C-alpha cells in the first residue's frame, strides 16, 4: 500500500511538473501579478486622487517608492531563491502581494498608502519576471531559454487584460473595489498555482520537460571579462525600464493632454500588450538561434524607431497606433533579453544573482521614473517628454551596440 501511495504521489508530481503545466501556471500568475501590482495604478490613480484629495505627484511617489524598495531587496531575494527555490519565493510573493493590494483598497491615510507600496515593492521582487525566470533556470538549467521566451508571451498580455479590468471594475464598484478584485486574483489564483510548482531541488530536465537536458554550453562571456558585459546590460535595461515605466503610468494622460480622446487612448494603448506578445512569439518562431548580441541590438533599436511616428504625425490615430505597435514589440523583446541573454552570456550558475546585479541599479534609477516624468510633463509638456524618452532610448541602444562590439561571436 505504501508503495502504491508513493507511486501515486510521484505520478502527481510528474504531471504537475510537465512543461505545459509549469508554463501555463507561471504564465497566468505573471499576467495577474504584473496586471495588479504594476499596471493597476495607471487606471486607478485618478479616481483615488478625486476621492482622497491627494496630488498626482504623491499618488505616483508611492509607486516610485515600490520600485525603489524592489531595487533594494533584489539581492536578498536572489539569495532567497538560491537558498529556498522558486516555489517558496513565488508563493511567499503572492501572499505579500495580496496583502499589499488589500491595504491599497482600504487607504485613507497617507502613511498607510506609503506602507502599502513598500509591501508591494517587496512583492514585485518575489513574484515578477526575475523570480519566475530564476525558477525556470532552477528547473531547466541552460535549457531554460525557450521556457523563458514562452513565459514572456503570457506576461505581455497583462496590461491589455488588466487596464480594461481595472477600468470597468472602477466604473462598477469604485477604485476600492477594483483594488480588492486585484488582491483576490493574486491570493485566490496565484498562491495555489505557485504551491503546485516543483519543489526546490527537483530538476525536470529539457526545455520541453521531457527527458534529460543535454550538456551545458559554455557561457559566451568569460568570468574574468564579465564586469563590462554586466555594466552594458545594466545601462541598457535601466534606460529601457525608465521608458517602459514612465509610459506605463503616463502614456494615456500624456496623449490625452495632446488632444486624443480618453477612450481611444485607453484602447490603443492597451494594444501594446498584444504586440509585446507578438514580438515574443516571433522570437520563439524565428529567433532561437539568433546571435544574442544582435537580438539585444534589435530590441533596443526598435524602441528608438518607435518614436518616429509620433515625430511625424503626433497623436493622430494611425501614428499613435504605429508607436504602440513598435513600442510593444520592443518591450516584448527586451524582456527576453533581460531573462534569456544573461543565461547565454554568463551561464546558469549564480543566474539569480546576475539578474539581481543587473536589476538593482535599474530599479533604483527607474524608481524615479513615474514621479520624474510627471514633473517633466507638468513643467514642459508631453511633447518635450517624448523627446526626452527618445534620447533615453538612444542610450539603451548604444549600450547594446557596445556590448556586441566587445563580445560578439557567431550564432549560438
Notes on the structure:
It is a single chain. The chain is an all-alpha fold and 412 residues long. The protein has one domain: MFS general substrate transporter like domains (Growth Hormone, Chain: A, Up-down Bundle). The chain is built from 16 helices and no strands. Helix 7 (129-140) packs antiparallel against helix 14 and helix 11 runs parallel beside helix 13 (317-346). The longest helix is centred in the middle third of the chain and has 38 residues, at 158-195. The chain is globular. Residues 1-16 and 206-213 have low confidence and may be disordered.
Task: List the main descriptive attributes of the protein structure presented here.
412 residues; 82% helix; mainly alpha; Growth Hormone, Chain: A; 16 helices
Residue-averaged pLDDT = 84
User: What top-tier CATH class fits best?
Assistant: Mainly Alpha
Fraction of residues in H or I helices: over 70%
Tell me the fraction of residues in β-strands, as a range. under 5%
CATH topology name: Growth Hormone, Chain: A
Quaternary state of this entry equals single chain
The termini sit apart by: 50 Å
Q: In terms of structural class, how would the helical and strand content be classed?
A: mainly alpha
**Main sheet summary:** none
Number of domains: 1
Please tally the β strands and state the result: 0
Based on Cα principal axes, name the global outline. globular
Organism: Phreatobacter cathodiphilus
Pfam families: MFS_1 (PF07690)
Keywords: Membrane, Transmembrane, Transmembrane helix
Protein name: MFS transporter
Amino acid at each position: 500500500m505504501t508503495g502504491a501511495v508513493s507511486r501515486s504521489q510521484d505520478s502527481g508530481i510528474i504531471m504537475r511538473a510537465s512543461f505545459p503545466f509549469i508554463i501555463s501556471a507561471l504564465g497566468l500568475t505573471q499576467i495577474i501579478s504584473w496586471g495588479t501590482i504594476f499596471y493597476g495604478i495607471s487606471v486607478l490613480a485618478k479616481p483615488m486622487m478625486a476621492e482622497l484629495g491627494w496630488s498626482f505627484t504623491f499618488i505616483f511617489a508611492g509607486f516610485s517608492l515600490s520600485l525603489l524598495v524592489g531595487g533594494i531587496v533584489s539581492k536578498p531575494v536572489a539569495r532567497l531563491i538560491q537558498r529556498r527555490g522558486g516555489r517558496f519565493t513565488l508563493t511567499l510573493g503572492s501572499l505579500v502581494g495580496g496583502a499589499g493590494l488589500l491595504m491599497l483598497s482600504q487607504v485613507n491615510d497617507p502613511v498607510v498608502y506609503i506602507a502599502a507600496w513598500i509591501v508591494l515593492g517587496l512583492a514585485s521582487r518575489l513574484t515578477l519576471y526575475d523570480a519566475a525566470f530564476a525558477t525556470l533556470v532552477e528547473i531547466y538549467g541552460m535549457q531554460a531559454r525557450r521556457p523563458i521566451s514562452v513565459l514572456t508571451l503570457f506576461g505581455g498580455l497583462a496590461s491589455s487584460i488588466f487596464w480594461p479590468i481595472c477600468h470597468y471594475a472602477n466604473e462598477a464598484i469604485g477604485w476600492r473595489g477594483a483594488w480588492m478584485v486585484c488582491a483576490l486574483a493574486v491570493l485566490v489564483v496565484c498562491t495555489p498555482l505557485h504551491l503546485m510548482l516543483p519543489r526546490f531541488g527537483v530538476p525536470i530536465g529539457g526545455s520541453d520537460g521531457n527527458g534529460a537536458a543535454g550538456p551545458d554550453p559554455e557561457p559566451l562571456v568569460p568570468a574574468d571579462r564579465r564586469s563590462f558585459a554586466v555594466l552594458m546590460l545594466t545601462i541598457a535595461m535601466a534606460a529601457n525600464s525608465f521608458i517602459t515605466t514612465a509610459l506605463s503610468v503616463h502614456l494615456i494622460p500624456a496623449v490625452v493632454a495632446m488632444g486624443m480622446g480618453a477612450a481611444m487612448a485607453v484602447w490603443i494603448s492597451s494594444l501594446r500588450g498584444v504586440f509585446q506578445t507578438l514580438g515574443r512569439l516571433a522570437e520563439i518562431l524565428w529567433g532561437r538561434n539568433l546571435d544574442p548580441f544582435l537580438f539585444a541590438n534589435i530590441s533596443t533599436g526598435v524602441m528608438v524607431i518607435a518614436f518616429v511616428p509620433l515625430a511625424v504625425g503626433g497623436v493622430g490615430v494611425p501614428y499613435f497606433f504605429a508607436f504602440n505597435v513598435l513600442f510593444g514589440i520592443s518591450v516584448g523583446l527586451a524582456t527576453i533579453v533581460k531573462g534569456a541573454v544573461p543565461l547565454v552570456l554568463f551561464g546558469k550558475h549564480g543566474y539569480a544573482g546576475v539578474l539581481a546585479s543587473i536589476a538593482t541599479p535599474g530599479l533604483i534609477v527607474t524608481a524615479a521614473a513615474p514621479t520624474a516624468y510627471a514633473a517633466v510633463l507638468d513643467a514642459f509638456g508631453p511633447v518635450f517628454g517624448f523627446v526626452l524618452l527618445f534620447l533615453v532610448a538612444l542610450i539603451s541602444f548604444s549600450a547594446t551596440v557596445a556590448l556586441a562590439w566587445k563580445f560578439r561571436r557567431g550564432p549560438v
